[in-house]
Design a protein that fits this description.
about 110 residues; mainly alpha
């Protein structure tokens, strides 16, 4: 199943796979209003996605949704963004993954 999804993903992507996390440049690209808007949208998605899972299936749904959304963020950055500069990749990964892990961590701490 995973091989089929990977093959499908590779065939449908408009760009060759690229994840230039260690590329040159500043740490993030938050120097313009457009970059801030993009990062805000990623934070919103990273927060809303696990919480939607919690709404549908409680703690188990939150964990499944968090894992799925984190995988989606990595796939999106690797296959659909093309050859983007390092600062943009780092900003997208941080603003997309940190909220997912924050929501999952807070849930785990609350439900010990």
């Amino acid at each position: 199943m995973t091989a089929l999804l990977l093959a499908l993903t590779l065939r449908l992507t408009p760009n060759p796979p690229s994840l230039d996390v260690f590329g040159p440049g500043s740490f993030t690209n938050l120097h313009s209003e457009q970059a801030w808007t993009n990062a805000t949208a990623h934070v919103w998605f990273g927060t809303a996605c696990p919480l939607a899972g919690y709404y549908f299936d409680g703690q188990r749904g939150l964990r499944v949704a968090a894992a799925g959304c984190a995988a989606f963020v990595l796939l999106r950055e690797t296959f659909w963004h093309g050859r983007t500069p390092g600062p943009e990749v780092r900003t997208d990964l941080i603003s997309g993954l940190v909220p997912i892990f924050a929501v999952a961590t807070i849930d785990a701490l609350v439900h010990r």
